[in-house]
Structures are given as C-alpha cells and as structure tokens.
Amino acid sequence: MIGTGSPVTTTERAEVTLDRTVDLRLLARAAAGDADAFDELIRPRLARLYRMAVAITRSEPDARDAVQDASISAWRELPRLRSPERFDAWLDQILVNACRALLRRSRRARVREIELVPDGADDDRQALGASTDPDVAEVDLIQRAFERLSPDVRSLLVLHYVEERPLAEIARIMGSPVGTIKWRLSNARRALDRELKAERR
Amino acid sequence: MTTNRDALIRAALAPSADLVVPTDLGDRINEGVRVTPQRGLGLQRWMGPLRRFVPELTPMPRAAAVVLTALLLLALAIVTVIGIASQRDPTFPSAVTAYHGGPTQDGVMPGPAPDGIATILLEAEMAGPMNNLSAPLVRDGIVFLADLRGNVEARRADDLTSVWATRDLPDGVEAPVLLGPTLVIAGRDGTVVGLDAASGTIRWTRSLDVTIESPLAGIDERVIVGSSDGVVAVLSAVDGAVVHRVDAGGPVKRSPPVADGIAYVVSDTGMVTAFDVATGGTTWVLDLARDDVEALAAPEVSTPAFADGILYVARGPNDASVPHEVVAVDVGTQEIRWRSTAPSTGRLFVGAITDDDVITIGEADGVIRRFDRATGESDVLYQNAAAMGALPTVVDDTLFVSSYDGMVRAIDLASGAERWHVQLDGQPTMPVVVDGRIHVGTSLGEVVIIGT
Predict the structure, then answer these.
(1) Model ipTM?
(2) Would you say residue A174 has pLDDT above 60?
(3) B15, B29, B44: residue with CB nearest A54
C-alpha cells in the first residue's frame, strides 16, 4: 500500500508508471474543493513522486519536503488546471519546480557537502542507489558529480536517465520546446562530464 | 542507443529499489491541504461544482477574471510609470561596464590595471555561486553581482560592504547589463527584470516565453536578450516593453556585440544576423556553417567580438576532441576575411582583441593563442596548466585570465610571460579590471578584489 511505508519495488514502479489515467470525476471534485477527493487522487501517486524527488534532491528529507510542498501547491492551484487529462504531467512539473526551489534554498556549499560526510553516510548513499557491482567507484563518482550540478541540470538528467521520459514529455515538464530540451540535455551531459573531471582531480 | 555509460549514469542516479515512502507523508499532505485554501476568484469557486454539469459556463467567469486582471495591471502600470518618471536621476553617469568590456565585447577593460605583483585585497561571501559566463559589473565604485540562484547585490568596491541586495529573482542568471539607472538581469526561465541600480528595487519584470542561457547585451536604453529558442528580443530598459523580436536562425547562447547601432547575433548553428537595434530591421544574414563541422556534433559558438569593422567568431562542434575555428567577417561587405583552425582540442573562446591580434583561449587544453588579425595565422602565447572557462580581458599590454583551477593570472601580451598569479577557491569569472583593481566572482559564491 503506497503511503504506508512499504518499499517501492521495480514491479510496483512499473505499475505506477503505466497507471497514469486520471479519474476526471475525482479530479473535478478535488478542483471544486473536496479535500477527500484530492487525498484519494494524490496517495496512489506518492511513490512515483517521492522516487523522482529523491533522485533529484539526493536526500530523503528534502524529497519528503518537496513532495509535500508540491502536493499542497497542486491542491491550491487545481481550480486553475485547464487540461485535466494532463494532470500527471502538470503534477510532475510542480514537483520538479519544488525540487529546484528546495535545492536553491538549501544553498549548501559544494565543498561542505563533500567534506561533511557523517558516519554511516556510505549506507545512506547505498540507500540512494549506489551500486555494489565492479563499477561501484564510477557510480560513486557520478553520484558525487551529480550533487555538484545545478538544480535544473539535475532535474533534466533525472527525467531523462531515471524516469526515462520522452523528450516531448520532458519539454512539457520543464516548460521548454523540445529542441531546447535537446540542447539542454546535451549541455547537462557536458556539465556532468565537467564535474566528473573535477571529482577525479 | 543505450551505452554502458548511460547505464552507469542510470544506476548512479536511480534511487534504490528498496526506497520506502515515509509512512506519514500522505497524512501530512492531507493535513496541509485541509488548512490551505484553493486559488481562484470567488465567482470561479462558486462555478466549480456547476462546471461538472454545465462546462460551457466556464468561459464566462474566466473572461471576467481576465478583464479584472487587465484593469488591475493597467492601474499598476500607470502607478509604475509615474514612479519611474519621478525617480529618474539625470545626474547618473552614462559610462557602463558590461559583459566582456562593453558593447563590442572586445575584452578591453577600462583599467587602469594594478601595478606590480597583485594579491587578494578583499573577499566577501555572496548568497550564491556565480556562473563563469557571468561577471561583476563595476561603476562609480559600486560592484554589481548576480548569482545563479536569483540573488543580485551591489557592494562598495573599496570595502565590499553591502549597498543593497535583492533576493528571490529568477534563477540561472547569466551576466547582467547596466543601462543608465537600470540594472537588467535575466533568468533561465525567460524572465527579465529591471532593477533600480541605486536601490535594488524592482522597476519592471517581463516574462518572455523563451529559455535564456546567454549573457545580456545592451546599448543606450535597449536590452538585447538572446534565447535558446532562436529568438532575440530587444527590450526597453525603461519599462521592459518588448520593442523588437528578431529571428536568429538558431539558438543564441552568447551575447551579441553591438557597434554603430548594429547588433551581430551569432547562433549555435552558425548564422550571423546583423540587425539595427533601433528599428529591429535585419540588415544582413550570413551563414558560417560548414558541412564538415556540422556533421560531427551539435555546433556551438563562443561570445563573438567586434573591432574595427571586423566580427570575430569562434565556433565548432560540441566535441572536445575536435578543434574549433576562428572566423573573421568583414561586416561592411559580409565577406569572410579568413577562417583559421589552431592545432588545439575542443572549444576556443575569442578573448580579447588587441591592435594586432585576436587572443583566444582553449577551454580544454588551456592554451592561449594569438591569431594575426590580418591573416589568421596563429601561434601560442601561453600554455596554461588547467582548462579555462571564462573569457580573458586586456588592459594595455597585459592579459588577465581565469582558469578552472581557481587561478587568476596576469600575462605579458608581448612575451607571453606570466607576471603574477593569485589562487582563489572555486572557479573565477572573467576578470573585470577597473580603477587599478581586478574584480571576480567565483563558483563558490565569493566576490574577490585583487590588486596591489
């Protein structure tokens, strides 16, 4: 049951991703101010939102805050949603913006993030996806390089690599034309390469 | 095609399959929702339940909202115009330091340069990091700084104490521009903001439906905003009104040089568009693209520079292993005077234009070259130990250059000898040399003044 502390398995994730139909009646009730309807609408989506937020922020507490902020923003703005069938893309857009805003607010200096690694941080890193295969060193480097990137670049890379969203959908979420997203994705890869080089030095 | 590298990135970025959604998250959201009112005009809220059954009624309240909003905006605009008119300070000096030295972007700074061996004189923490495509602006002893996180501030150059700071502006800000009494910044999301340079208060905000990844340019009371969507907008610095829109034939990520009222925009696709800033009329277009370059990878261009009727452009494919070329275009005849490729790797940035040479820096190989302005022949002026991402600047016979390893160096333009260097934390921006001091921001969010 999502929202009760159960792990999100790959299988569940696939189901969540595929189950993107919106109950328009429920949505209309929520848009008209029915908080129970909104609760019914948002809970099945929490696992997907939380996973995406963790990937972007690389922090479970930050991800929790981002999902909460985004959900409440969605509730507040719901009466203004013009295309109810695009609810999920709209919700994703709000979440990505919430993650970006949260990362900007946190203003943690890059060096501080690297130096102040608390005891047990390796365990945390593993929980966030560090691999135990022979490429573990490279994976670890990528994770550290990723944490040095700007919020926008992080969001873009997560939508592309983790969420595996098509370019058109990323464009809708990021509010840019598809062509621009292609360029920005190319730039994001270069930015990641740059930070990887810096990490290797 | 998925590569092993893509798979590694995916493995690194994907959260663990064991990730657990916090048990109380749904309840916390529910609690938050119950104390948060929904937005919408009163009439719309009343129409909500009805809309489910009578959807054709929806346009009526929306139209009412639009009319009401328009009236409010009109009233706000009138108040703002009256406010600006009463605040204009006619004694404000007209001299401006903009990105890469000024409208022509030739890298020549007002100076004077510091005498002797320079060291760090002052440093202060900013609210956020500065992009290496940005730079401090300095005028009348005030340093203006815009960081990547939407913070803009003014500090006194003599002690770096704060004059004003304005927060929560659009993020992703590239280099701003000072036009008369207005400091103009632009965020990546397409929002352009005009701030009162004396107080930091917002004079106007304009939302353009584009992505901005380019420093701003400007002349007189006109701001030139390049966009990654291939459109260049010219705005009034007085009220932010869009005066002209110009098709640039491709994404514009570098600010255009402006000379004699003509802006020279160079898109990543190699299209040069010359247009009259006053009228918005395109005077000519020239395609610099070459099939052999374009076939390799997505092309990109560095900040173009202008001097003595010649536009200098460095461009090439987005591939670190392929050298970029420098192209000299005669803007009077639109003829290409020369194209020259140095035996370097990766991107070349056109740095400064001296009397005889075009100084370039190699981003990846750290080589500073000089291209003969008459022939395009090049030689190495200085071999840097580290890669360089910010544009260099010139005062008299000295080149000032920042590198990714945190160094700011002074190099003798005649001999290529290093005169001094200063080590900073983080990547410094372009060095801005004014009043005997060098001003830089850094990627770690510091402003530093170097001098003797």
Answers:
(1) 0.77
(2) yes
(3) B15
